[in-house]
Every structure is written in structure tokens, then in C-alpha cells.
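writing this on my phone so excuse typos. first protein, seq and then structure
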Amino acid sequence: MSKYILIISTCADKETGKAIAKALVETRLAACVQMFPIESVYLWKDKICDEGEIMLFIKSKADLFDKISATIKENHPYEIPEIILVPIRDGLPEYLNWIDDCTE
């Protein structure tokens, strides 16, 4: 597994996204959280849903994933929040060093 990761998550609104982002950055679990408005179409409890959401791109380190996942769950209203880990295979060394500097 790569040392560095991108975690993708979604939430219903900007306020929830900011609360999660701030919780992660303030506790040094993430170096950066980017937020994007998106439109999601998905199946939930046998119903097709079409809703606006906020997508979070969370930059961090693999050894912090469990703590990040727990923090998202603690601050998230969804019954089953999206939490997907994407390994970062490579990147600008100075940027990866910055992730190290900003996280525990």
C-alpha cells in the first residue's frame, strides 16, 4: 500500500462537508480536504434517488485511514457514508512532504 492516500466521501450539504473537513484538518488527520458540488443518482432501499451532494477529496496518509473513517462516521448523518480509499502511487515530492508535515 502506498504511504499516501486520497479518500473520497460525499455528504448532503456544504455545512456537513465543512464540519468533516475542519474536524480532519484540525486534528491533523488530513492535510487538505477539497469540496465539490456534484449530482448523484443512486439506488437506496429500492428507490432511485437523484440529489445534489458535496464530494470530499481528503489527502492524507494510509496509516491514518482508520481514524479518518471514524471521524467521518462520527460527523456524518448518512446511515452508510461513502468512504473510499484511493492509494496515491506517486506525486510531486514536495507536495507529498507537505502532507507529512501537516498530518500526525
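second protein below, same order as before
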Amino acid sequence: MVCPRCITAVDEVLKEMNIPSEKIELGQVFLKDEVSESIRKEFGKKLNELGFELLSDATTQLISEIKTAVIQQIHHDSEPLNVNFSDFLSQRLNYDYSYLSRLFSGVEGITINRFIVLQKIEKVKELLFYNEMTAAEIAHQLNYNSVAYLSNVFKKETGMTLSQFKELRDPKRRGIADV
């Protein structure tokens, strides 16, 4: 789950199936009671119909937690990080970053840093599209050292400058989950 609408969709499935939950967060559901394997399979099937996946093995769950932490920080937290992402992920997930990095790369085929860059570019596109912030404010919020550096990364990833992107009427944005 990567956005508040995802949480709502999962909550609706839980209610439809009469599965009581304690809490639903991005990427996690905390049930009040254990459920049978048949209910678990049915829940997984209903989630798949919505485009979600029920994760059960530890590696898959950890990869999901990495993605959720990055997405939460970039797309949903209003305050910029005051530490780098490697320290943030290590602290949040209680694993050494080198382990998380090797695991993520092995499973996803890209590095965590590349995933972070792709998420940041999508956030930049969103903020530019809605004209909510100046380039300097965007650079600050996403922890880029300068507008010039943000512009260079954006141009490298999209082939356009920030101002060229702002002029587009129908920018090709991807959903958070598709990055």
C-alpha cells in the first residue's frame, strides 16, 4: 500500500470480510486476531483484484517496508529528512544499510538509491504540475543541495528541464506504485 486511498481500499476489504483490524498503515495491516489459512487466501485474492499483494515471507516484507518508508518520507511527510536516507532506513528498520541495500538490489534489480531518485522525480513532477512550490522550495523539501543539482537530476531522468516540464499540458506521470 503506497497511499491513503490504498489504506481505505484495504480497510473496505477487511470490513467486507468481517476481519477485525487494530490498525492499518502504509504497507501493513495489524489484525486483532489470527485468521485461518482459507480466510488469509481469500483476503490475498481480494487484495490481488485491487492490485495489491499479500506479503508473507520475511524478505518480501522487508523489501515492502523499505519501499513504504521511502514513499512515506518522499510523498507524504511534509518535513525534509535531517539525516541521509541510508541512516533513516537503518534506524527505521533496525538493519545495517549495507544488508538492506544488497537485499533490495538482489530482489528488485535496482539500488535503493535509484528507487529514491525515481520517487523524488515523481514528487517533483507532482509539485511542478500543481505549481505548489518554487524550484528552490522543492529542492529544499527533497533534500537537494541546490536548484541546479535538482535541475541536473531532473533533466537526466526526464530529458526535460524543470521549466519545460511545467509547460506541458499532459505530463507523463507514473503512479507511485508503478515507479
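Residues 58-76 form the longest helix (19 residues). thats all i got for now
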